[in-house]
Specification:
Order of helices and strands: HHHHH
Distance between the termini: 38 Å
Radius of gyration: 17 Å
Mean pLDDT: 92
Helix content: over 70%
Number of strands: 0
Structural class: mainly alpha
Oligomer: single chain
Largest sheet: none
Shape: elongated
Number of helices: 5
Strand content: under 5%
């Protein structure tokens, strides 16, 4: 995520792109935190640095693309493989956790889904 955020910020010309991209990527461990911090900071800096509409729109479009990639490809694939869950199960677990308990629910959703998978596998075996 840090590489993707940094690339977007370099293309948009936001300074300091590398620092903001790395911090956003590291904070992405907590769902939405990296996005919120990186997007907000980048948007404000792009407005202050360039005082036009093009650069803030580049930031908005770039972060939108990164979020789409993360939500639909990166997270389900990587997390699903490491937990042994199907990517669709990962998405549903995150949606259920978020709907029921907010950000805290999203944090505990995947460990609980993996635990349920293990319980079901032992019951069926």
């Amino acid at each position: 995520m840090a590489v993707l955020y940094t690339t977007v910020l370099l293309v948009a010309g936001v300074k300091p792109a590398i620092l903001i991209g790395l911090v956003s990527g590291l904070l992405s461990i907590v769902p939405y935190l990296g996005f919120i911090i990186g997007f907000g900071t980048s948007l404000v800096l792009s407005i202050v640095q360039y005082q036009d509409i093009l650069h803030p729109m580049l930031v908005v479009g770039g972060f939108l693309i990164v979020q789409l990639l993360e939500g639909n490809l990166i997270t389900p694939k990587i997390v699903g493989e490491s937990l042994g869950l199907h990517p669709t199960a990962v998405i549903f677990a995150l949606l259920a956790g978020g709907s029921l308990f907010g950000i805290g629910g999203m944090i505990i959703a995947l460990p609980i889904a993996a635990f349920i998978k293990i319980l079901l596998a032992e019951q069926l075996a």
